[in-house]
Amino acid sequence: MTLDRKNVRIDPRTPWLAGVRRLLSPMAGVTDRPFRDICRRFGADMGFCEFASASGLTYGGEATWRLVDTDGEQGLVGVQIFGNDPEHMATAARLLRDKRMDVLDINFGCPAKKVVKKCGGSALLADVPLLEKIVRAVVAESTVPVTAKIRSGWDTGSVNYREVGLLLQEAGVPWVTIHGRTRAQKFTGAADWDHIADLVELLEIPVIGNGDVTDAESYRRMVAHTRCHGVMIGRGAIGNPWLFAAMRAVDEDRPVPEIAFAEMCAVTCDHIRGEVTARGEKRGCLVVRKHIARTFRGYPGAAALRRRLYATVRSQEMIAILEEAAAAGGPLPAGNFSREET
User: What Rg, from alpha-carbon coordinates, does the chain have?
Assistant: First the structure.
């Protein structure tokens, strides 16, 4: 059955957005180039880099600039910046002009304490005049379309996604992504899909939904409930890139594929190789651990497998362990691999 989505106004600068349904959210320490490439392999239409501090980019911080790892990247990719200084945000947009990206996204949704305490991310939902200054400053300096990710509001007493959404539409953004929780909720409780549905109906531009999509069925339910243009996946993708394959199956109205244990091992091996190439031997192996913690959840013997993998930071040893496990393992029920989404 074809999913019912609202007819929206597609910005002529982003004609490709008409076919974008499944997006990988920017996540610190997660959505680097190797992981984006893997998610695309399974059906992500677009991926975002780890979000970067505008001040870090402005001051030339090497670690911050390494997060914008898009040179030569194939497929749609976005860069996301955060900050509370309109001048720094505008400077970052200007400095990013030569970088490979299809959109520049502004982070108005991150609830992390280290971001919020600097009045960045979702903190700006509590200061709409400053938020507007930032949007207009970035739009004025960016040579690619500027988008934004928001939450429902700061807390239950200040739910203002309608005001912010209309402001963003008037400022000329081609789409808005909304996570259906307030900053006060962080990642607790249930995402309020009614807020997403309301914003979909309010705006003429596309709305991308985010929150509590963990498998094919929850993806189907979110789209049916909200009629959103697309869905952005955050933590649900960690260790579970085949979530995008399940979503793609729903979009194409065909059975959700089962993922064999041997394929999970093979994909993890590919991820290790990619991270080691990008980050070096030790750091690359450590980065993959957060994915391994979720990838094999539900498989008999998963704890022992994780212990063996965590005992080394040598990629060839990790790959050998995974190849051995794949040779001895078998297919796993797809139901064992739903993930908690943010």
Answer: 20
Q: Answer whether residue 161 shows pLDDT above 90.
A: yes
Contact 217, 181 (CB under 8 A): no
The pLDDT-based confidence of 341 (bands split at 50, 70, 90) is very low
Mean pLDDT of the chain: 93
Enzyme catalytic residues: 110
Q: Rounded to an integer, what distance in angstroms lies between the CA atom of residue 168 and that of residue 179? A: 15
Strand 52-53 relative to strand 46-48, pairing: unpaired
**CB of 128 closer than 8 Å to CB of 163:** yes
Q: Which two tokens stand for residue 339?
A: 């993930």
Confidence (pTM): 0.93
Give the count of beta carbons closer than 10 Å to the beta carbon of residue 202: 13
Model confidence pLDDT, tens digit, residues 84-101: 999 999 999 999 999 999
